[in-house]
Design goal:
Length: 937
């Protein structure tokens, strides 16, 4: 009895202890007034060929014509219905000639007639021209235009860019970015992806420049203008307008007979890696798809690094364009992570040669037919060549888990979205749904129908629809033709449409019976927020994989059954008792899974065993990600989530830790500046990984070890590991010799823990840096500063020309993401100087996005009040982007409500956990003595 009383008293004493405890002339914001249908061209006319001649003005001696161009285009067309209206796109072009004629027989003279301008809608860019009489069906006509245009610096259309060479000379160049709707800024055109044609390009350029386009140069001759040459290019394959490209520059090229990499001359040495890996990936992609790239109508492939480039890269057929940091590698400075990113972007763009260029989505409603496959092969195409990077594992945490957050709110859209018309709609379709979810869905189909069947279906799809546009039904037909009956072929159509035409994804509930012999599967839509307007009733047809404590087979990703959208439930029966079931093997399915509490505890027990109980690394990552999001959404208690996540103390693998850090990041944001207990928690969980990995690389390190080291050091230093901070500072003291793969950590720690001296050292390094990847790393470290004067200095850098427009958003984001304390100061700077920031970033919509992203990190009511005050006074300046500001208010309100309901549970867990950990041996003895004394008395 004394022992029992002692135990009860000890428990009471312990409970008491625990209880305490992300220069353009500024245009006015756009408000769209046209009806949606008005943005689409009539299908009454089909283009056949464009013959384009351009003469850009890039020299200072060009005077007032500098940064303009002269253009002439002959468009061969064929009407599909009789019509006297020719509708096509033209934007910011001044036309001096608009005429047409029937295409004459060889040697005959045409009868030229004038095209009369009926209307030109500056919102839709559609120019309606009328002819003297109806154009006859199937008769071939020639449209002829002469015009002038401007080369802006906004990185769209036919635009200008510059760099400063080693002699401190500013060098100008002209390049293009036509996707999605900017070819119309270079030549009048039928600027929709379905209107495919061939292109003949001719460019007149000064002798100091060279030119490249999609195809090889056919002929170069001396112009009748002194010091000018004319370059004539071979005819392109039949393709969409957005895929045309040309560059006029002083670039140098590393090349063989068919493949080349272009960059400014000073960067020639940095083109070797992309030249090597690009040739290999292009070959392997052709082998996999049974269609060699060079057999498709273009006998060359160039890749060019552009100083100013809005997209990460662009898939122009035969002339891929990239940001410099996305193509150039310096062996001494470029990190392994950046090298991987470069190879992956090369694979992504090259995959587009088949998915996007050869076979093109008919309209941007189906962007995923292009981008989903490109993102898929970004990983699995790179893996053909770079076999040591374990990209199949990285895909899960980078793509599937990252998109699930967006796809579980009312802000999402379906993969196939028919409501796509305006430029804003088009921009929306280039989001993580088309890319990440598209690739994740494609991967799910591969594992459902079988890899060989999947590969064969893609080969047949490309043959059937080459040089044509495609819709999702064409892909489905190719899949079902090769989908075997024993892999649930009868459900193929239901699977396809439930994941492409519906938004979101399911939560699969797997209920293990008390006797461990049956599991009942049910589903519901997974939503992170309550009452945000999302349809909670959606159901999906889902291929289900699973294994059990008795099998532990994490290699078989063939579905065991399909849970139909019409089925209330599905039950699996086992002959012997099992203690746990884990569904979604290697997270090949696009869904989350929840279990009974006893099943979760059994999984936790397995994870604490040797080799984590044999549970696959990807499934450990899935467990971590699902637990954190299930608790966030209120499906389970945080106490259960964190009880299972204690296993992370033993985890030393990149994939599960990445899921953990991603989930913890949300909680860290919600905590705001109160991270004392959270810091202890992070330091405890990462102790084993930190001690095992350290700062120094080992020859035995795999790629994922190197990546994990960076993440663990970053989190450990950020949350107060004194040894980590001191060692990072020591490395910074020898700034020129910091190992490249830990530079991001060392730079950030030095700025976070230091002041103006450290910032000045990095700033001077940035000013003289000649490696694009290192320059990016340096400027993205600037945001780690914490002193107000330095915060303002970094903000002023963003406003200046020292940070290129393409990089301003990322540099600014680090200023409020690296330190929670910076959120309010940066918000004040952005709102106070929003007009200057709009000028620097090129639009008010960009500023609205910045404000929205900052507001998503608000944790206090007074911050919400400040946002509302700003919006009330200034939203009129933002045009259609005012809705982004209003949505930001809703997001803050939802986050504050979530914190009020859930954050206390997390704080209590941290406080209790840390309180328990801090009970020293002395405290234990003291409590024990007090207890004994009390009992004896």
């Amino acid at each position: 009895m004394i022992a029992l009383r002692l135990a009860i008293l000890w428990a009471a004493c312990l409970s008491a202890v625990l209880a305490d405890t992300r220069q353009l002339q500024l245009q006015p914001p756009t408000t769209y007034a046209a009806e949606n249908w008005e943005y689409r061209l009539s299908e009454a006319i089909s283009p056949i060929n464009y013959n384009i001649t351009l003469r850009p003005y890039l020299l200072e001696s060009d005077g007032t014509k500098r940064f303009t161009f002269d253009g002439e285009v002959f468009i061969e067309i064929q009407p599909t219905v009789a019509t006297n209206v020719v509708s096509l796109h033209s934007k910011n072009l001044t036309h001096s000639v608009k005429e047409y004629w029937v295409k004459p027989a060889a040697g005959a003279n045409p009868t030229v007639q004038t095209l009369t301008l009926a209307s030109h809608n500056e919102e839709t860019d559609i120019m309606n021209l009328t002819t003297a009489a109806n154009l006859a069906v199937n008769q071939v006509y020639i449209l002829h235009f002469k015009y002038t245009g401007k080369m802006e610096d906004d990185m769209h259309g036919f635009y200008r860019s510059y760099y400063v060479n080693d002699n401190n000379e500013t060098k100008w160049l002209a390049s293009t970015q036509f996707q999605t709707h900017h070819a119309r800024r270079a030549f009048p055109s039928f600027d929709e992806p379905q209107f495919k044609a061939t292109f003949d390009v001719t460019i007149k350029r000064h002798r100091s420049f060279n030119t490249v386009s999609n195809t090889k140069i056919l002929n170069t001759y001396l112009s009748d203008e002194a010091d000018y040459f004319v370059d004539v290019f071979q005819k392109t394959p039949k393709m969409s307008t957005y895929l045309l490209a040309f560059i006029i520059s002083e670039f140098t090229i590393r090349k063989d007979d068919t493949f080349g990499v272009l960059a400014r001359p000073e960067f020639y040495q940095q083109t070797q890696y992309s030249f090597n890996v690009g040739r290999k990936i292009l070959t392997e992609m052709g082998n996999y798809l049974k269609k060699d790239y060079y057999s498709m109508g273009n006998d060359k492939m160039d890749m060019a690094a552009i100083p100013d480039f809005s997209a990460g890269a662009m898939e122009n057929w035969g002339l891929l364009t990239y940001r410099e940091r996305s193509l150039l590698v310096d062996e001494s400075a470029t990190t392994l992570s950046s090298r991987q990113s470069i190879a992956a972007v090369v694979a992504h763009e090259q995959a587009h040669m088949w998915f996007g260029d050869l076979v093109t989505c008919k309209w941007w409603s189906y962007t995923w037919l292009n981008e989903g496959f490109a993102r898929f092969f970004q990983y699995f195409g790179t893996a053909f060549v770079e076999t040591e990077w374990e990209l199949e594992k990285q895909f899960v945490v980078d793509q599937i888990q990252s998109v699930m957050a967006m796809d579980s709110t009312n802000a999402t859209n379906p993969l196939s979205d028919e409501n796509t018309y305006t430029p804003a709609h088009l921009s929306r379709m280039f989001n993580s749904i088309s890319y990440n979810k598209g690739a994740s869905f494609i991967r799910m189909i591969e594992h459902t129908m079988g890899t060989e069947n999947f590969q064969k279906s893609l080969q047949e799809y490309l043959v059937k629809y080459e040089y044509q546009s495609s819709v999702p039904e064409y892909l489905l037909a190719a899949w079902t033709a090769n989908w075997p009956a024993n892999r649930f072929n009868s459900s193929a159509e239901h699977i396809f449409y439930s994941f492409t035409t519906q938004v979101g994804y399911p939560l699969i509930n797997a209920k293990l019976s008390a006797d461990g012999k049956t599991v009942e599967f049910t589903q519901q839509r997974f939503l992170l927020k309550e009452n945000d307007g999302a349809d909670a009733k959606l159901k999906y047809t889902v291929p289900i994989t699973f294994t059990t404590s008795a099998q532990k087979d994490f290699n078989n990703t063939q579905p065991k059954f399909v849970l139909a959208d019409s089925a209330a439930s599905h039950t699996e029966t086992f002959t012997t008792e099992i203690s746990w079931i884990i569904a979604n093997i290697q997270e090949t399915g696009y869904y989350r899974v929840n279990y009974t509490e006893s099943n979760w505890h059994a999984i936790h027990k397995a994870l604490t065993e040797s080799n984590w109980g044999g549970i696959h690394e990807i499934n450990r990552a899935q467990i971590v990600d699902d637990l954190l999001n299930l608790a966030r959404a209120g499906h389970i208690e945080y106490s259960l989530t964190f009880a299972v996540l204690e296993y992370l103390e033993t985890e030393t693998n990149y994939i599960p830790w990445t899921s953990g850090f991603n989930g913890f990041n949300f909680l860290a944001i919600r905590l705001g500046n109160d991270t004392k207990d959270f810091s202890v928690y992070i330091r405890d969980l990462t102790t084993k990984a930190y001690n095992q990995l350290g700062f120094e690389e080992s020859k035995s390190d795999k790629a994922l070890d190197i990546y994990l080291r960076t993440k663990v050091l970053s989190w450990s230093c950020r949350y107060g590991n004194a040894d980590c901070i001191n060692r990072a500072k020591n490395y910074f003291n020898s700034l020129s010799s910091v190992p490249k793969n830990i530079r991001s950590v060392v730079y950030c720690v030095a700025l976070r823990e230091g002041g103006s001296t450290e910032f000045e050292a990095l700033y001077q390094k940035f000013k003289t840096e000649s490696v694009a990847t290192e320059e990016t790393l340096l400027q993205n470290s600037f945001g780690c500063v914490k002193e107000q004067s330095l915060i303002e200095r970094v903000f002023n850098l963003v406003l200046s020309n020292e940070i290129r427009r393409q990089d301003k958003a990322s540099v600014l984001s680090t200023l409020y993401t690296e330190n929670n304390e910076n959120v309010s100061p940066v918000f004040e700077l952005v709102t106070k100087h929003h007009e200057s920031l709009a000028d620097a970033m090129g639009s008010y919509s960009a500023v609205a996005t910045v404000i929205s992203n900052i507001a998503a990190r608000f944790t206090e009511d007074k911050q919400l009040s400040a946002l509302k005050t700003f919006n009330s006074a200034n939203s009129g300046k933002f045009g259609s982007s005012a809705s982004t500001l209003k949505s930001a208010e809703t997001t803050v309100e939802e986050n504050l409500k979530w914190s009020e309901a859930k954050l206390l549970h997390f704080r209590t867990y941290l406080s209790n956990r840390n309180g328990s950990a801090m009970i020293s041996a002395f405290s234990f003895i003291t409590l024990l003595l007090v207890s004994i004394t009390t009992l004896l008395n």
